[in-house]
Design a protein that fits this description.
- Helix content is 27%, strand content 24%.
- By secondary structure, the protein is an alpha+beta fold.
- The strands form two sheets. Strands 3-4-5 form a three-stranded antiparallel beta sheet, with no helix packed on it. A two-stranded antiparallel sheet has the order 1-2.
- The longest helix has 28 residues.
- It is elongated and about 95 Å long.
């Protein structure tokens, strides 16, 4: 690795000739403003925290789970998944059951021939 000081600070070049990247971690606030919360220096592989509070999406300071609250397959909310199954049954299967029952019993004559002779 080659190191030298550039206009933006320390610069490192790896064995392939690629620049070793350094990063700024920023927390975006309301509107378009942001505050820097950490620096990562690629040449020394050091992370420097700047004692700033990170504001996560939704305006919270609590670290997000990295997954939906109920999991990707509702594995963490079994009661919600069971309730959804019941709702699906009511919406889709129950009307079909009613129609099959009507067809099984036969269609009343008044519906087949509304104008009797």
């Amino acid at each position: 690795m080659q190191l030298f000081t550039g206009v933006s600070g320390p610069v490192g070049i790896d064995k392939n000739g690629d620049r070793i990247a350094s990063y700024r971690l920023q927390s975006f606030l309301k509107g378009m403003s942001s505050v820097r919360v950490a620096n990562y220096f690629g040449t020394t592989k050091q992370l420097q925290w700047l004692n700033q509070t990170i504001i996560w999406p939704g305006g919270t300071t609590k670290i997000p789970l990295g997954r939906p609250a109920c999991g990707f397959d509702n594995e963490f909310c079994k009661d919600v998944a069971e309730g959804m199954r019941q709702i699906k049954w009511i919406c889709f299967a129950a009307p079909g059951e009613v129609l099959l029952e009507i067809l099984d019993r036969g269609v009343p004559r008044r519906f087949l021939n509304p104008n009797p002779i």
